[in-house]
Every structure is written in structure tokens, then in C-alpha cells.
Amino acid sequence: MNLTMPLRFTSIAAILAANAAFAETTITIATVNNGDMIRMQGLTEDFTAKNPDIKLEWVTLEENVLRQRVTQDIAAKGGQFDVMTIGTYEVPIWGAQDWLVSLNDLPAEWDKDDILPAIRGGLTVDGELYAAPFYGESSMVMYRKDLMADAGMEMPEAPTWDEIAKAAEAMTDKEKGIYGICLRGKAGWGENMAFLSAMANSYGARWFDEDWKPQFDTEEWAATLNTYMDLMNNYGPPGASTNGFNENLSLFQQGKCGMWIDATVAASFVTNPTDSTVAEHVGFALAPDNGLGKRGNWLWAWSLAIPAGSDATDEAKKFVAWATSKEYTALVAENEGWANVPPGTRTSLYENEEYKKVPFAEMTLNSINSADPTNPTVDPVPYTGVQFVAIPEFAGIATQVGQEFSAALAGQQSVEDALAKAQSLTAEEMEAAGY
Amino acid sequence: MARSVTTQRKIINTAAAWSIGFLIFFPILWTILTSFKTEATAIADPPVFLAFDWTLENYEVVLERSNYARFLWNSIFIAGGSTLLGLIVAIPAAWSMAFVPSRRTKDILLWMLSTKMLPAVGVLYPIYLMFIKLGLLDNRIGLTIVIMLINLPIIVWMLYTYFREIPGEILEAARMDGATLKSEILYVLTPMAVPGIASTLLLNFILAWNEAFWTLNLTAAKAAPLTAFIASYSSPEGLFYAKLSAASTMAIAPILILGWFSQKQLVRGLTFGAVK
Question: Given CB atoms, is B73 within the 8 Å cutoff of chain A?
Fold first, then answer.
């Protein structure tokens, strides 16, 4: 077949144009292995159908491995990822370093003002939103209504630590293998220190004063740690110094905990009759306080951010906007039910009549709203963060402090010794860091 | 009487060997069993050993969620490639150290081994930066080279030990018959050292298959092998032990089968020269 010259040119141009039209951009998304994220991976056909020129590649890693991996990549400008799943600890630090792309220009229909103020505040640096929240969480009390009723007690909606101690005592029946309270004891900045830092806020304790001096030698920290030790030693399960979220979830689901104070995301697990033997008996209450105006609950949001080194920023923004949109919430509700939509990010979700029927919805919202990352404890502090201090040195310091507190829980040292060591090691690290 | 004592001892030895073998294998067996349980049964207390409703649901979920074939192919490529590349470099190196030693041979051997004493994380950042410059991040070839280098001291040491057992006179005879260096290594030394080379190959393949530090740190979506596949099912917030066990079983199955069929060669190679 002989084609004339103009026809040949036209054909070649048409082929090139077609190729250009279907040129595919691949974006690599680093994410964690949790129920909400996995659900999103299963629903991405909706995104790729609307954006046929964008291909998604997933890198799913365990939370701590992911954190190390994305930190290394972003610091070395490796350019491995176009979208990263990071938390409220990383966003302010990385945003201030200009390591993340600002998301202030996401489309108007994405509705930035709909994001819960507490969550949005934690993801904003100098007016720039550096990450879009995928799901937000706080912590709250999950308790056994049947055991409370058997003990002739009723859990207040907003209990104090004294009321928690009384309830723990009343529900403990060690002969039957029931322990009044289960709390995190495993060492780590995101493990026992997340719980204890949040608890300390309700006792008016601070990590640092306004001059960045460590505060572990104060009465407030002593009261926090002594209350924690008393609760765990008297009413906690054996071997609690190695218990993290999963270990306590397992104990609670098997009916071995009267109370568990932990992430609000656990509510959907403990009320799921397929996995939980106590699903129908679970009640919820706000994290305890001590009458000082601050509760012992934390605030966290797994969020999607775009590293500054990405070469597919526009495509990544399209994906981030889709995954954190109201439409995505509706898509999950349609496919998996309202109880499974990612919680804790948008005001509109909590105004939705269908979502209001979910048993833990209101308590989750109230818990999130009662946390204030910019003003976490009673006295003023120079940092942001409720259960963490948003400075790069914090993870290392808090992990060491967590090891001291965990050792005290295991009976290897006294509360006084643990606090003294925490004070000296924190002072040393902060001085070395130039504070 | 003496015979009955021997039989008794045999029974005791056999029972002890089986008990120790079972104890060592038990974690793998437990992982395999857990992979067939529901998530609720997986965390049941007291644990259920065999009397549970067996399900393939976890395997279905894992196969649906992950591209197992891609992870498997990457593992085969990286483990196989690094082992073969390692042998190509190590056989001549071990030959020269075993048959033409110099004053510094022992020092070199010790120096090579000392590189294994450095924690891997100590060189992570330099290697990461080099990989960025060379465009080797998330690349199978880059990872193959790194893992070959990591295991090279072990390969050289193992081959050196085997080669030392071969009498140098045989090689001398070959040389007198006019064999070149290449034919000496290929046609005289290698066939005599086959059990040693085979066990070195198998052991290094297993080490490369199981390597998790570099494979997790230098890969993302394209070159990630089965170690990354397992890591993707680990979760600190959620009890997904049955699915994690299914992923682990799928990741270790190929190497377990390989080890099972080659156990004779492995044992023969590892005990080569141990008893004279």
C-alpha cells in the first residue's frame, strides 16, 4: 500500500497524538497496613476510571518501617514516592523544612473549610496546608457495660481518673482472668509514650517549659506515672510492659479487660461480632481528666502528603484530592457501609444523619474536638502536639524515656528512678541538639 | 545385651533428634497452621492447634490484594542473580587464596570477614545516596549487586575451606599435562569441589532470599521481593495475624521446598571436611 506524503505525515501525527493522549503517569503511594488504607486500595478503580492517564503503584509497609523509609527518602531526595502517608508528627517538621508540597491549591470543591479545625491545625504550617487528612483519631475509654452493671456501677460520659480507678477495681476478677484496665506498656514514642504524654496533659504536666527545660522532675509527672503504675500493678494484666495496641486489642476482644483506653479506631474492631467476643457489651466514654480542664486523649491523623521531589505533583494532587474528598466517603459508605468510612476528618461527616447512627461516631468526634495540639496541657508550652512534641529530636528522646517507664512497669526500677533518668537523658539530648 | 543397649541408645537419639527438629520447625508449622485460621481463631486463648474450621480465605485476600507473582519473580531474580554473580567472583578468589597463598592471604580473609561485623545500617546512607546518583533505587540489578557484595565474604570463606581440602598435587598434575588456568579451574577443581560449591550456592541463595534490610530500604514498588511482600501485611494497629501468616507461608514456601529437596547436598556440603 502506497501512501502519499501528506497522508503519511497525517498518519504519523495521529499516532503520536494518540500516544500522547494515552501517555500514562505512574504515581507511587507509600502507605500503612490498616483497615482504612487497604479499603482505599480496593476502591481505586473509581479514581483510575476517572483518570485513565494515571497509574497507581502501592508500597504498603508496617507503620514504623514506613516512617523510617519515607524519612530516609525525603531527607536524601530519593524521589521514590509521589504520595506519602504520614502523621501529625511529621507534617509540621517536614512542612517547615519545605520538604512537602503545599496543598492550598487543591480544587475548591475539595472544601478545605470542611476539615475539622483540630486536625487542620495540626497539618498547617504558616498558613500552608501540607497534608490532606485521610482519617483522624483520638483516644477514648472503651469499657464493658456488662461488667460495670454487675459491679453496680455506671460509667460517666466524661470520667475522672479517680472514677476510672474505682471502676477498674470493681471489674477486676483475676481468678476469672478479667483485669479492670488494659493500657499500653510497650516502650516507644508511639507506644507507651503516646498514652503517657496524653495522660500527663490531664495532670497538668509538660514535656518542656517555655525555655525548653525538661519537666520530668515535677510533681505533675510523678502524679501521672504513679497513677499509671498503681492502675497497672493492681488491676492490669500480667506482662503489661510488652503490651501495645494489638496485644490489648486481643485481650479486650477475648473479654479479659474491663476497660481499655486507646485509639478511637479500635471502636470498629471491638464492636465487630466476627472478631470480638464482647462486641455487644462495649460502651464508650471520653478519656479521663483530673478536673484541670484537659483530658488525657491524643490526636492523630494519617494524612496524604506529596514530597517536594516528586516529578508527578499534579497527578499526585489529583489522587490526594480524590482519596480525601467527601465523594470518597460516600463511595465507601455505598460499598462497605457507614461504619467503615474513614472517620475524624470532616465536619460534614458528623452532620450526616446516617453516620450519626454509628455507635462510636459521636464519642470519636467529641474526643477529637477535646484535643488541642497548639495548647495541649494546662500551662503554656513552646511546642505543638498532644501526645508528642513536634521537633525532630522527639522520637529518639521519647523512645528512650519510654524504655525507662516500661522498665519501671516491669518492676526493674522505681518510678522515682525512671523519672530521674528521663529528666537527665532528655536534658542531655536537648542540650546536644542546641536547645 | 550390648546390642539392646545400642538399640535403646538409637531410640533415644532418634527421639531426641526428632524432638529438637520439631522444636526448631514448630514456629514455621504454627505460621502455616495460622494461615488457615480466621483472624478470631488466630488469637484464640487457649490457642487452637488443629481442631478449627480450616479456611483458604486469607490466601484469597492476599492474592487479591498483592501481585504475588511480581514479588516472587523479584526474589528469584535477586537471590539467583546475586548467588551466581557471587560464585563467578568468589571461585577465582578462593582458588588463588587456597592454592597460591601470599603472605597477606590470611589478613585478606580476616579483613573480608570483618566487613560482616559492621552493622548494615552504618553504610545505609552512603549506599542510598550512591544509588540515587546511579539511578539504581528500586532496581533489581542494583539490589542484586548489593546483596552479592554483602554475601561475598561468606561465599569466599566457604569455597576457600572446601578448596583447601583438595590436594594441590592433583592440580599440579593437571598443569603438567598442559592444562591452562581456565581448564584447571573448570575441568579439574570445580568437579572435585561440586558438593562444596553446591552447598555454598544453596546457602547463599537462602541468605539472599531472606535478606530483609537492604530489600526493604532500597526498593519501592518495582523491585520489591517477597520480604517486602511479608512486611506489607504487618500492622501495629489491627489484628491481621492470619493474613500475615498466609503471606509469610507464601513467601517461604519456595525456599522451604528447595531446602527440602536439596537437604542431602546441603548437609554433605556443610559437613565436607569436618570428619577426616
Answer: no
Whole-model pTM: value is 0.84
Cβ count within 10 A of residue A406: 23
Q: CATH class for domain B67-232? A: mainly alpha
Tell me how far apart the alpha carbons of residues B11 and A425 are, in angstroms, rounded to a whole number.
58
Chain B contact for A267, CB < 8 A?
no
Kindly report the nearest CA distance between residue B142 and chain A, in angstroms. Answer: 15
Q: Which residues from chain A sit within 8 angstroms of residue B38, using beta carbons?
A: 274
A69, closest residue in chain B (CA to CA):
B217
Residue A15, min C-alpha distance to chain B (Å): 29
Residues from chain B that touch A80, judged by Cβ atoms under 8 A, are 137-138, 220
- Whether residue A7 lies inside any domain: the answer is no
Identify whether residues A123 and A172 lie together within a single domain. Answer: no
Residue A22 above 70 pLDDT?
A: no
Domain extent for A236:
139-297+379-432
The region of weakest confidence among A58-67, A394-403, A409-418, B258-267 is B258-267
Q: Which CATH number do you get for residue A48? A: 3.40.190.10
Instruction: Give A179's strand partners.
Output: A257
CB contact under 8 A, A33 and B240: yes
Per DSSP, helices labelled H in B37-183 are 39-42, 57-65, 68-99, 105-114, 124-134, 140-164, 168-176, 181-183
Q: Give the one of B44, B221, B238 whose C-beta lies nearest to A34's C-beta.
A: B238
- Tell me the pLDDT band of A7, cut-offs 50, 70 and 90: low
In a shared domain, residues A261 and A387: yes
Nearest beta carbon to residue A62 from set B39, B65, B234: B234
Q: Which residues contact A134 (CB under 8 A, 6 or more apart)?
A: A36, A37, A40, A85, A301, A302, A303, A304, A323, A324, A342, A345
C-alpha span between A72 and B127 (Å, rounded): 12
Q: Which residue of A has its CA nearest to B41?
A: A275
Judged by a CB distance cut-off of 8 A, whether residue A65 touches chain B is yes
pLDDT tens digits for range B214-247: 999 999 989 999 999 999 998 877 888 999 999 9
Is A149's Cβ below 8 Å from some Cβ in B? no
Q: Say whether both A108 and A156 belong to one domain.
A: no
Residue A4 has pLDDT above 60, yes or no: no
Confidence label for A6 from pLDDT (cuts 50, 70 and 90): low
Q: Is B224 on the interface with A (CB under 8 A)?
A: yes
Torsion on CA atoms B58, B63, B66, B70, rounded to nearest 10: 140
User: Which residue ranges make up each domain of chain B?
Assistant: 67-232
Mutating which of B64, B232, B244, B248 best tests the A interface, going by the most A Cβ atoms within 10 A? B232
| Contact call for A65 and B137, based on CB within 8 A | no
Q: What is the dihedral of CA B44, B50, B51, B52, to 10 degrees?
A: 60
Q: Please indicate, yes or no, if residue A14 is contained in any of the structural domains.
A: no
Cα–Cα separations (whole angstroms), residue B50 to A232, B33, B42, B55, B160: 35, 8, 12, 12, 47
Which residues does chain A have within 8 Å of residue B235's beta carbon, measured at their own beta carbons? 32-34, 62-63, 246
Asked if residue A181 lies in contact with residue A258, where contact means CB atoms within 8 angstroms, the answer is yes
CB proximity B57 to A under 8 Å: no
What are the 10-residue block averages of pLDDT along chain B, 276 residues in total?
A: 72 94 94 94 88 93 93 96 95 90 91 88 92 94 96 93 86 87 84 86 92 93 94 85 95 90 76 52
Interface predicted TM-score (ipTM) of this complex, two decimals: 0.81
Interface probe, candidates A29, A60, A184, A256, chain B, greatest B C-beta count within 10 A: A60
